[in-house]
User: What shape does this take?
Amino acid sequence: MELLKKLCSIHAPCGEEAALKDFILDYIDKNSAGWKATPAILAGDELQDCLVLVFGKPRTAVFAHMDSIGFTVRYNNQLVPVGGPHAETGYKLTGKDALGPVECELVEEDGDLSYKFGRAIQRGTSLTFKMDFRETSDYVQSCYLDNRLGVYNALKLCETLEDGIIAFSCWEEHGGGSVPYLAKLIYEKYGVRQALVSDITWVTEGVHHGEGVAISMRDRNIPRRSFISKIIKLADKSKIDYQLEVEGSGSSDGRELQHSPYPFDWCFIGAPEDHVHSPNEKVHKHDISCMLLMYQYLMKNL
Assistant: This one.
């Protein structure tokens, strides 16, 4: 879990994904010699802070968003949410402005958000939950398992992947924006038009801790049923524990693929978590293991 712990500690809310991109590039440099195949690395200003890895002759792309929720300092101690964070008075927030590091306390009052700190924090400063990474024999608990666990899954997948694309995207928590140009690149340059979304979903009355990775049949968006049926048939053959998810809300990078002008099929597959968008996101280790194994199996067989 050391890699996951490090990923959760990196300050990379929407719009500031560069720090996580740089960490991933350094991780690739240090670890890719032990991977089964060496990817082509696509990065640069034309992709902004996104990153794409291309292995062999790809048939399927995996999308994992790098950004997290957080807060932006406004005026008069006010905070503006980034994405949809769960906000409670007393949560610890961290960041850095030109005057130095910041560790302050969140204050929520009738929906209004502010901070408590010994000085004014410069406007425009981003703040994220202070990490408290906890691990037991069964669970991992921390801020930003959504979606650093999805990034972790993608990086572990790189160890065995021979043919496929890994796309690390930006801004997903605050409305998206990077997936359309990634989809254009992936479809037009490589002819790939099917995708898996490596992201984290919710524990609900129908999706439980410890019962396997969740395969989403729909959320606010409805993917093409024939592709979802193909995924489920392969999941049955794999003998890996999984749960079927059906929701009417929530979204992911899959929404942007579906709204793009390219004919992408997509499926959201991820471990379920409790205490969503809080400092205490909680995921069962068995579900993490099933997520890793399911992606390895599907990328070989799709």
Summary: Helices lie at 2-9, 18-31, 145-157, 179-190, 225-238, 253-259, 285-301.
